[in-house]
Write a structure and sequence with these properties.
The chain is an alpha+beta fold. It has seven helices and seven strands; from the N terminus they run αβββαααβααβββα.
């Protein structure tokens, strides 16, 4: 029987090698595309979850503010000091800060001496520069319009039109001032946040802390002799308030829901208060906790 001869397999050509490389590149590209789509879907799902949590937290904060406002409206007198109210809505504890606006520094009526102290202590400017900036602030608010009426500041943001006040300086001052009062320009220390108390105490943090601690404990007749008597008006009530709800989030951070309201019988929708400004802000996790997560 004749022997069967087999033909040797043809040697791989350069063309077949290129085809193999092309297939590998396609597989790699598809893998990258699938991985990218997966990450994109996960990221979108995470963003949607965060957005939903933010909306729910805002609703919880608004509900807590409504509960506190109902209680304030039922009282015979407007509040005259900074206080905290613990409210609960749907089993979520929410702490609400109630602050009469006369605890802030009124940029429309504050005397030049108070503005100078604000710029010196809160902004950290040298005394001469602080006094010059205080004078520029007074000039800006007293500048006359076409009808000869003082322009005044319509909002805290208007401080940015004062020569010498840029955004970094404004950001440090904004939490301490208001443009929503029509008083004599003095500050109610019983309603003032700790940072304003430090300004009124000429930079003495110990005096400010003593008054803040006594106020938090609910004491009456708090000694304010460490403050400048020419710049304060003790225990004056105010119908314009700032209410700030601190709502916990599942991530451990907090959402702040803030309302600026006026207690009035002529409120919109028949309510005994009128909300004229709202804000939302976040208190993020400390960097160590966010890193651990």
């Amino acid at each position: 029987m004749p022997a069967v001869q087999t033909k040797p397999s043809p040697a791989p050509t350069a063309q077949s090698g290129m085809v193999l490389i092309a297939v590998l590149w396609i597989v790699a590209a598809l893998s990258i595309i699938v991985t990218g789509l997966t990450r994109s879907v996960r990221q979108e799902a995470r963003l949607l979850a965060q957005s939903r949590a933010s909306v729910v937290a805002q609703a919880q904060g608004d509900a807590a503010l409504q509960l506190v406002l109902q209680d304030l409206a039922a009282r015979p007198a407007a509040p005259n000091r900074l206080s905290y109210v613990d409210a609960t809505y749907r089993d979520v504890p929410v702490r609400v800060e109630v602050m009469p606006l006369n605890g802030l520094i009124d940029i429309n009526n504050a005397p030049e001496a108070l503005l100078t102290r604000l710029y010196t202590i809160a902004a950290g400017l040298p005394p001469a520069a602080a006094q010059a900036l205080a004078q520029a602030t007074v000039q800006a608010r007293e500048r006359k319009d076409a009808k000869g009426v003082a322009e005044r500041f319509e909002a805290v943001e208007d401080l940015l039109r004062v020569p010498g006040i840029g955004y970094p300086l404004y950001a440090r001052l904004a939490p301490l001032v208001t443009a929503d009062l029509r008083g004599a320009g003095k500050v109610n220390p019983m309603a003032a946040p700790p940072e304003v108390l430090v300004v009124l105490a000429a930079g003495r943090a110990d005096v400010a802390a003593r008054i803040a601690d006594a106020r938090l404990a609910g004491q009456d007749g708090i000694d304010s002799t460490g403050l400048d008597a020419a710049l304060i008006d003790n225990n004056t009530s105010g119908r314009r308030l700032r209410l700030r709800a601190r709502v916990p989030l599942d991530s451990g951070a907090f959402l702040y829901v803030t309302r600026y309201v006026e207690l009035t019988s002529r409120g919109r929708n028949g309510l005994p208060w009128y909300t004229y400004h709202t804000e939302l802000s976040y208190e993020p996790l400390p960097s160590t906790q966010s890193t651990q997560r």
